[in-house]
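seq:
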Amino acid sequence: MAIAKAERLMNLALCLLGTRRPLSKRELRESVEAYLEAASDDAFNRMFERDKDDLRELGLVIETVENLDGEVGYLARRDSNRLPPITLDAEEAAALGLAAKVWQQARLAGAASGALQKLRAAGLPEDVDPYGAHSALEPRIPVHEAAFEPLMLACRDRRPVVFDYRKTNAVQPESRHVEPWALECWRGHWYLAGWDRDRGAERVFRLSRITGKVRSRGTRYTTPVPDVVTVRETVASWAGESADRSARIRLRSDAGYPLRAKATAVRELGDGWEELEIPYGHGLDAWLVEFGADVVVLEPPELRADVVDRLRAVAKG
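struct:
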């Protein structure tokens, strides 16, 4: 079955690349033997649409053209489906190799390796080893959350999703309807940025707080997707990377080293405690909760109240 589909895709690709004018569905059905065997017009249409999407997924640029009579045709122009000459020096090839090794623990490992193989076929010098140039470097991006893969595919395919999400100050998770924009990694945690349909606003979700399965919804986006720089700024803000004021906390002397790295001032209190002044931005309350009894918030009062609420929610289970 897999061989038959591969042959069908190859024949369709050859038809689209070999024509000088757009071919209609009827003409393509007559040109590809497997389509002639379709039981009905509906079966052919479903098969053709799947094949067309698969070819586009593989990188083939397929144009849809409507003629003067309103008939729709398809073609794949050779100039749109030809790689330009590729020239990479040893350092550039090494950078690509390191980028591919980053994703060895995720679904992108196969795609990254395949991309390097395509570059090799397109002219990457044979004497350049993109994996071995800097073997002392072993970058990794760990992906442990089950929600990562379905959300990555939903971001790529622009498909809205539904999932159950548990906020740190909530006992039970609640359903969220989201148009996913992008996945970003901050402080070792993965975040999803997207448009929350129920709240009518952009939101950021930490993947470790998604419970159950991520379900796709076959509808279109209702809002435009911002550029990648804007998305990263949004995630940074929600993950606590941007701060517009300061907070004072008490910290045990032998704990909370990540907090010490952020501190702008440190004062000894005695009895195994220190007082720190740290930047205060969105998400700081959730971060402080992770240190448990080793941290006591002194001010501002609203931050102290948020941390207490989160600790109480955790205690309730």
